[in-house]
Amino acid sequence: MKRIDSLSGIRYYMDKYGIHPRKKWGQNFLVDGNILRKIAHLCNPGCEKLLVEIGPGLGGLTRELTGISKGVLAIEIDFGLREALAESLQGLNNIHLLFADILQIELEEELRKAFGEEDISGYKVCANIPYNITTPIIFKLLETCPQMESATLMMQKEVAGRILASPGSKEYGLLTLTTAYYAEVEYLMPVSRNCFYPRPEVDSSVIQLRPIKGKRVQVKDLSNFKKLLRVSFQKRRKTILNICVDLFSAEKAEIHSILNSIGIDPKSRPENLAIEQFARISDTLVMRRFGNDI
């Protein structure tokens, strides 16, 4: 069995099994063994938890994860990698491979089935996720995986910057606030584009999401709160006053007065408002005027 933590190892499997990296699935394979080991240990410094890996590729990170966990459920969308993975992961007993689209499955149910355990609380996720589905994967993990303890995710540097952005910056937006509602976010490390084959056009970053029990802010109506966030950043050059006037079909003077009464400058733009301020706006305007009608 050829090791897969180097460029020569990756090329061996690609040549042997006729593998051509598919851009639509973000197939850029890590070829730096030190980076693989570092990410694995950042994901799960102990060995008592189950792990989920999204997109194992040729199995480089997977092998590292199996050595530091109770078991790994590796979910791969590309069925064409099955033979290469069968060889690269041979000899490992605590690995379960599932060929499926992560966005189309019930992740926690699949984890229970894979290891025959009802109690999966505290499992962790590790993934190198492609740009075009970064946001859907993050939202799926945070909104539908209540037993997850953390998600250690490698993604394009620019996307990580949007998640970690502060109010007032151009990167600050819907992804920032939605992630912040559900989780604490920590920047872990940079990963150079030179650590991948094929070499991508941009560098990557590794971040960790840790779901907040009870959520960062309490809102009276989550769907209305999310709609306020979504509409605000669709119209981010408008003031919050004009956004709320449009959203609630209300008189400008009335909205102006309400915003002032809760300490929100009506001239503020969405990128200058913190999540707590959006929660205050949502609760106050929904409860005082339209209930659940927006």
Structure at a glance:
Residues 35-213 form the Ribosomal RNA adenine methylase transferase N-terminal domain. The protein is an alpha/beta fold and 294 residues long. The chain has helices spanning 7-17, 33-43, 60-66, 82-88, 107-115, 134-144, 157-163, 174-182, 222-234, 240-248, 252-261, 275-290, and strands at 29-30, 50-54, 71-76, 95-99, 123-128, 148-156, 183-191, 196-197, 204-211.
Note the topology.
Elements lengths: L6 H11 L11 E2 L2 H11 L6 E5 L5 H7 L4 E6 L5 H7 L6 E5 L7 H9 L7 E6 L5 H11 L3 E9 H7 L10 H9 E9 L4 E2 L6 E8 L10 H13 L5 H9 L3 H10 L13 H16 L4
Parallel strand pairs: 2-3, 2-5, 3-4, 5-6
Antiparallel strand pairs: 1-8, 6-9, 7-9
Protein name: Ribosomal RNA small subunit methyltransferase A
Pfam families: RrnaAD
Subcellular location: Cytoplasm
Order of helices and strands: HEHEHEHEHEHEHHEEEHHHH
Helical content band: 40-55%
Query: Any idea of the CATH topology of the largest domain?
Result: Rossmann fold
Q: What is the residue-averaged pLDDT?
A: 93
Q: Give the amount of beta strand, in percent.
A: 15-25%
Query: For the terminal residues, how far apart are their CA atoms?
Result: 59 Å
CATH H-tier superfamily of the largest domain: Vaccinia Virus protein VP39
Structural class: alpha/beta
Number of helices: 12
CATH architecture of the largest domain: 3-Layer(aba) Sandwich
Query: How many discrete domains?
Result: 2
Uncertain regions spanning at least 5 consecutive residues: none
3D shape: elongated
Outline the biggest β-sheet. Answer: 7 strands, mixed
Which value, in Å, is the CA radius of gyration? 22 Å
Family: Belongs to the class I-like SAM-binding methyltransferase superfamily. rRNA adenine N(6)-methyltransferase family. RsmA subfamily.
Protein name: Ribosomal RNA small subunit methyltransferase A
Pfam families: RrnaAD
Keywords: Cytoplasm, Methyltransferase, RNA-binding, rRNA processing, S-adenosyl-L-methionine, Transferase
